Amino acid sequence: MSSCTAGGVAEAEPIAVVKIGGSILKNARAYRRAAIFIRNRHSAAPEERLIVVVSAQEGATDAFERAARNIVGSPRRATLDLLWSTGELRSVALLTLHLEQLGVRATGLNIHEAGLMVPQNVRTEDPGSIRLDRERLTGVLTEHSVAVVPGFFATDGLHSVVSLGRGGSDLTAVLLAVGLGASRCELVKDVPGYFTSDPNRNADALPVPFLTFEHALQLADDGCDLVQRKALEAALRYDLPLVVRSLDEKGNVSRVAGTIPGPTWVDSVSSLAVAP
User: Fold this and answer.
1) Domains located in the chain, CATH noted
2) Burial of residue 207 (number of CB atoms within 10 Å: 0-12, 13-18, 19+)
3) Which member of 11, 20, 24, 86 has the lowest number of beta carbons within 10 Å of its beta carbon?
4) Which residues touch 141 (CB under 8 Å, ≥6 apart)?
């Protein structure tokens, strides 16, 4: 993945990318809980800079689409993307406010500042065609410990916002982690990682602590959409290990990588435990 030359922070300090899914962000209390998680994450490894990718609040994207179709039966994709983007931007602002209230040196960025770009005049979800201009992000991380950015979107050559497919915040996190040379990429979900079956439906489901990209892709093909398939494809392409977990700091953690087994998990919050 090509990127602009950027100064200092990527070389001097480790960067981690943490994505907070919309299924977690149900209400104001959930945003605060997510902020506490990020504060604890940063406290566990204060030398590390965090990029936090957020989705829209649970249900917002579907609600926006219904509202659009009540006005125009078949809205233009560009207009729908613009409407959708307001959900992610709201999440960025709310989480940043909660982090500020907790004393974290955080800032929120918009879609253009995040730096992901698709080719000019092309609305695409192909991970291989998306590029990152990392200069803005690395500059921000010299002044702030945490940068909160919107998932699900990039910009095109005309500076319009372009959605990256349902579940696209996972892809945002992977592409930012690759482009920034991050030490790891964590995807925070409403369940603590992968299981042998849906733990919300089967009380006997067992956690799967390690799985290969191929296994995760097969699960996606079988209907397990815990991680967006395009995000898994991108992680496989760039050999980026993924950590899949919940906000529960003592809960199970799954690691998706090229080979198994991986490292022994001691404490899911410890920077040593989650390093690839």
Assistant:
1) 9-274 (3.40.1160.10)
2) middle
3) 11
4) 9, 13, 15, 49, 51, 147
Burial class from Cβ neighbours inside 10 Å (0-12, 13-18, 19+) for residue 92 reads buried
In single-letter form, the type of residue at position 247 comes to L
The DSSP bridge partners found for residue 107 are 147
Block residue for tokens 């991986």: 262
Residue listed under structure tokens 């409403």:
190
Rounded Cα distance between 9 and 159, Å, is: 26
Local structure of 169: helix, strand or coil: helix
DSSP letter at 119?
Answer: P
First vs last C-alpha separation in the chain: 20
- Half-sphere exposure of 165 toward its Cβ, with a 13 Å CA cutoff? 13
Can you tell me the distance from the alpha carbon of 14 to that of 41, in angstroms, rounded to the nearest whole number? Answer: 13
pLDDT tens track, the chain, 276 positions: 444 322 334 445 799 999 999 999 999 999 999 999 999 999 998 999 999 999 999 999 999 999 999 999 999 999 999 999 999 999 999 999 999 999 999 999 999 999 999 886 555 556 678 899 988 899 999 999 999 999 999 999 888 999 998 889 999 999 999 999 998 899 999 999 999 887 877 888 889 999 999 999 999 998 888 999 999 999 999 999 999 999 998 888 999 998 875 544 333 333 333 333
> Rounded to an integer, what distance in angstroms lies between the CA atom of residue 95 and that of residue 81?
22
Do 239 and 221 contact (CB within 8 A), yes or no?
no
Beta bridge partner(s), residue 257: 212
Q: How far is residue 96's CA from residue 106's CA, in Å, rounded to a whole number? A: 6
Around Cβ 112, how many Cβ atoms within 10 Å? 15
H-helix segments, 72-167: 77-101, 111-114, 135-141
